[in-house]
Protein 1
Amino acid sequence: MPGPSPLLRDVFGFETFRPGQEEIVDAVTQGENVLAIMPTGGGKSLCFQLPALLRDGVTVVISPLIALMRDQVRGLQEAGVEAGALTSGNTQDETDAVWAALEAGRLKLLYMAPERLASGATLGMLRRIGVGMIAVDEAHCVSQWGHDFRPDYLRIGELRRALDVPLAAFTATADAETREEIVEKLFDGIAPRSFLGGFDRPNIHLAFTAKDGPRRQILDFASARRGHSGIVYCGTRAKTEALAKALSDDGHSACFYHGGMDSEDRRTVETRFAREDGLIVVATVAFGMGIDKPDIRWVAHADLPKSIESYYQEIGRAGRDGAPAETLTLYGPDDIRLRRSQIDEGLAPPERRTADHARLNALLGLAEALGCRRQALLAYFGETSEPCGNCDLCETPPELFDATTPVRMALSAILRTEEWFGAGHLTDILTGTETDRIRDRGHDRLPTYGVGKEYDKRQWSAIFRQMMGRDLLRPDAERHGALKMTDTALPILRGEQTITLRRDVLRRAAQQRRPAV
Ligand code: ADP
Ligand code: ZN
């Protein structure tokens, strides 16, 4: 059986699993009966769509929402997956096409409204076509006490019995009574393997810091945790080697790991990491799949991860044993520029690029968060929570300031120089610094020349970084990373909206913090 990750990328266009997805996909693929509770927007559909491709036979998907079924079928078909729906919204032609595909044994996923189960003909058809599993979306509709009760959902249990195939039930409704009812009605009271949401990993301390001598920042973080196993993720292969050497020179037991090494060398590192205490692996994202070391005490990102999903997955390798673990993510304007250009220059179709930019924005939003980081992280995955008390921002709330004026100054400098320059030159204009470039271009005659003197270069760098983080500015790949204004900035430029930023005190709190271990 092929591993799920190539399909995840090739068919669904995702680089990594969302929290919880991988475990659920594995269980469903292996034919277990599964009950999974995931928040809305958490990514439930992948948890049956991906296994459907890995398993034999047709997966019957029962869902009460016709529009949603049609959406999913369209999405799957666009991705090249044979899927069809039998709903009351079908035209006769559509229904005929679905039947023909079923008879020909081509269909992998058949979406069906529960009402269909009332017909004997449907049941006969399902027996004939070789159903491999049943997936039930919105499984709480089986609950007679809930407001979404659908009497036809009660037939699903019969269907499972008649076909004798595994069933995977999904819902966002988590209360215990509903769960019990689902187990009773869909699984005949025999407890399925249950996944109860809860993406929070409260034992993992979260921290982000702007890059300010990143090598030293990583060395300090590692030294404060000397003797404990950790992973440092880097953006490039070359960097893993350089940083592993720096850590070794500093007296740590460290080695590097990346996709350019031959498989034997990689296996050696994996085995050492599993067996040795206190080894640091400096790696690209190639390191991760299949590591199940429970006592990784810390994970550092020397470069910004690719998306909020990757971030969650990578930090999630720490502290699987439930004991305190710590993370530190470094980021700077170069990371933002690099990640943006990777997306823009990639081969993905335009819609996917837009989605990738949005996922990157979500991570940048987390990096520049104004309040509890865990709250922001969980909110992205659809969970609401209280401030956690176990992140850098809960411990040291950032000092905020109304940055409307400097942000407008920066936007004005960008527009007056026609979006041809990067943060360095713009800062020289704003602070009224005399450089050859300023003189040559006549930028000392701009009305914005020197208007931002009250902020020093460092503060401007923090302002530009946060403006990029909020997606007010994007580096233009065709102009060597010159900063371009986005539409998000328009209301601020026009004076219709104010903006609050963090005063960057380049806190070293994350590094100085006494290690939990
Ligand atoms: P729900 O749990 O509400 O049914 P969906 O399955 O519709 O959620 O997924 C919600 C959104 O999350 C969709 O836009 C989907 O494309 C996106 N998504 C799902 N899985 C992933 C993933 N592994 N990486 C990135 N985005 C994902
Ligand atoms: Zn917090």
Protein 2
Amino acid sequence: MNEPASTAERTASRSEVDVLFSTEAIADRVDELGGEISQTMDRDCMVIAVLKGSFVFCADLIRSLHRAGMHPRIDFLTLSSYGTGTESSGEVKITRDITDDVAGMDVLLLDDILESGRTMAFAKELIQKRGAKSVSICVFLDKPNKRKVAIDADHVGFTCPDQFVVGYGLDYAHYYRELPFVGVLRQGANAD
Ligand code: IMP
Ligand code: MG
């Protein structure tokens, strides 16, 4: 990272989070992603953000999609698989369902991170079963070595090292979502 770190980045680096993807790098990549997606999706597609982790990414990406000339509908699907720790429980549950009808729509599923793939495999199957015309996947981060089910994203923000990361919507035990960058929690840091 050559550019000067923001105050938040300096503060976090001094305490418990080591910056992995800076605010500026994220902004540049999300801007590119909007352009990439606009080449492959219907202008009037439906974006479904898988919550909670993707809410920050979704807010930035839909404005990038707008700049690329797209006009998406937006809905939210809350799934849980992790509990409050850093290990997946393996079981995916719907905590809050979408409210829009996806039948006949080109759907873009958004998530913060693709790890085992269970969350996105569950979401993709659900939306396909409800009659979507197509279902594409866009994830902000991808940990390809951690896959437990065969699924890949059509669009990836960054490939992520096999470490537990926080910030830009990603949490550790419900904390750190507000960080404007992505970083790795230092050993011994906790959510208190
Ligand atoms: P998967 O079902 O294993 O692919 O995991 C997807 C979900 O697990 C994501 O939507 C995140 O909420 C969570 N997750 C996986 N890895 C991380 C991480 O490094 N930091 C924070 N959350 C993570
Ligand atoms: Mg999540």
Protein 3
Amino acid sequence: MKRIGVLALQGAVREHLQTIEACGAKAVPVKKPAELLDLDALVLPGGESTTMRRLIDRYRFMDPLRDFAETGKPMFGTCAGLILLAGEVAGYEEPHLGVMDVKVERNSFGRQIDSFEADLEIKGLDAPFNAVFIRAPHIISAGPDTEVLCEYDGKIVMARNAQFLGCSFHPELTLDHRITDYFINMISVEHQSITI
Ligand code: GLN
């Protein structure tokens, strides 16, 4: 059985664990760096990226997470998790992990609409995906090897760059598991082009 870790320092951990199990894989909450070692893939959940970063530093997760990225195993960042993966964060001198070739901006959808739902057309999915956005970031620009999978309101909200998948919204908060399923399928095809 495929073992998918969820970084369990802060944020929407339980919902990702439940979604992974619903997709038929083993979900593993990751609270210590050593728990990264026997995983096939890792989810960085949504939450609050500066808080998560503080906890990453406090529990000495940064180098182990970058080592994990170097193995080529898939990593999926949702919302704050996308901010953690990004190579550049607008307005900040340094990225967090900095492994995914995208530049992101935090809190992109306006203060008055901190949370909303939208039906998204996602490349490779045959029907719209109802997505929950909560103080969501968006991808301002993507490198040449990054495939844009979805735009909403003229903004990139989902993309894939090699083994890294990122989205602005929270796929784990709905009962539609197609995106998590897609991520789990990246385990065996991580360097191939996209087909959902
Ligand atoms: N606004 C949050 C941040 O910048 C992300 C919000 C989320 O993950 N739902 O970290």
